[in-house]
Amino acid sequence: MALISLRQLLDHAAEHGYGVPAFNINNMEQIQAIMQAAEDCASPVILQASAGARKYAGEPFLRHMVQASAETWPHIPICLHQDHGASPAICQQAIRSGFTSVMMDGSLLDDMKTPAGYDYNIRVTRQVVEQAHAVGVSVEGELGCLGSLETGRAGEEDGSGAAGVLSRDQLLTDPEQAADFVARTGVDALAIAIGTSHGAYKFSRRPDGEVLAIDRIRAIHDRIPDTHLVMHGSSSVPQEWLEVIRAHGGSIRETYGVPVEEIREGIRNGVRKVNIDTDIRLAMSGSLRRAMMTRPEEFDPRKFLAEAIRAARSLCRERFEAFGSAGQAGRIVPLPLERMAARAAALEFAAMERRSPAMMGSG
Ligand SMILES: O=C(CO)COP(=O)(O)O
Ligand SMILES: O=C[C@H](O)COP(=O)(O)O
Ligand SMILES: [Zn+2]
Ligand SMILES: [Zn+2]
């Protein structure tokens, strides 16, 4: 099957009321685990690659592994998405490389550390929308900075996240500003800040509404009901995997993630894309630790890696089921990116006409 755009996939998800997990990919084992799980439950998938993934695997390897997935699982719709693009140039490189969707993260400057001003965010995001839509590629923007409402800090071990302490205002996306941002940039999906952060250390206790602002999703969705919302930092940090890691020589202090039930509440309120990286990391490293410690005589790495694939596959399957994307693969007929480009142009024209009918020759 051809790769599909994020816009096509999320339009389908919105129409049928489900959410799609977006899993980060870095190597063959992660890709196979995600794809096998998608096959198990007939779900469409979003495979997303960060700048760190490109550095680790190299762009040609990522591209060919995703092509290999499309060949191996021809009936599973796959969206290949660039995670946290730091600049229009990086998004442009991803488009050239065959990505069907890019994230322009203009909430931070291109060092991916310094919170950016609103005008900067609008300018770089708009620029990427113009470039990407011309070739039918979708764009995710971000408004508000990811970080903890407990500490004001972004996840500490992460490569993309604000440095220093942020105010509550910076950490929560404002619904009114979100409406203005979407209208002025034309993004297909919007990442919002609601108290989640990247990495394993999100919450020091099981999160409640004080530190995980699900009600903010509701307020944003009420204001822009037609915009697909994206939740970043949405790993649930399974306590079982923390136990396995601790029992086999690892050391991870007490920490909590985003409960799956809260994500489901988000999906009931317009969240269509749910970013998950850490959970796969935890499941894979926990299962690798266990396999290596319980089989000291084994030295074929495939035996250990097969355990890691099994663990990640089962985690992905749970998320496909919980978010409602399971069973949807067969209901999506991929549209060529040319068609998506034409659609984007038509939508843009209609929006401009609404704003200034006279200028568009229909006033
Ligand atoms: O948001 C993410 C990638 O963009 C991943 O979040 P986690 O660290 O919670 O898995
Ligand atoms: O943005 C966060 C993702 O978890 C990607 O992480 P990474 O930059 O270490 O690849
Ligand atoms: Zn960001
Ligand atoms: Zn993210």
TrEMBL record:
Cofactor notes: Binds 2 Zn(2+) ions per subunit. One is catalytic and the other provides a structural contribution. One is catalytic and the other provides a structural contribution.
SUPFAM superfamilies reported in the protein's UniProt record: Aldolase
Pfam family, one: F_bP_aldolase
Cofactor(s) demanded: Zn(2+)
Similarity annotation: Belongs to the class II fructose-bisphosphate aldolase family.
Name assigned to this protein: Fructose-1,6-bisphosphate aldolase
EC number: 4.1.2.13
Function according to Swiss-Prot or TrEMBL: Catalyzes the aldol condensation of dihydroxyacetone phosphate (DHAP or glycerone-phosphate) with glyceraldehyde 3-phosphate (G3P) to form fructose 1,6-bisphosphate (FBP) in gluconeogenesis and the reverse reaction in glycolysis.
Binding site residues for Zn(2+) 2: 105, 142
GO biological process: glycolytic process; reductive pentose-phosphate cycle
UniProt xrefs under InterPro entries: Aldolase_TIM, Class_II_FBP_aldolase, FBA_II, Fruct_bisP_Calv
Record's keyword terms, sorted: Calvin cycle, Glycolysis, Lyase, Metal-binding, Zinc
